[in-house]
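One thing: could you explain this record?
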Amino acid sequence: MSRQDMLSKVKTLIGLDDDSQDTLLGVIIDTTDQALCFKLQEDTVPTELSYIEQEVSIRRFNRIKNEGMASYTQEGESITFNSNDFDDFLDDINEWRRRHNKDVKTLGNISFINPYWGDDHEI
């Protein structure tokens, strides 16, 4: 999805009908895109996962000026943010990585040294 298409969708979902927040939203979208690409080990976000970029961008926009807040309560209203914006999408990200052979959970050979044996033994 093009950056302009993403910007248009995000603006629609947050109810913006002017260009006053385009620069801020552009930075948020770019940062979200970079983070998701890193998690996927890809240069671009695959079309089937563009909804994650969209949703996380909206969450980040809605959190502006409340960065880092873990919890807030005032007069019966309570607000809590996830520590990681991608937490709700980890299952989808991991499934995509599995389907595209991007799952890198192998550790290879590990050697432990037992001081009582005098040398190392591979496990």
Notes: Strands lie at 71-74, 77-80, 111-113, 120-122. The chain has one domain: 3-122. The chain has four helices and four strands.
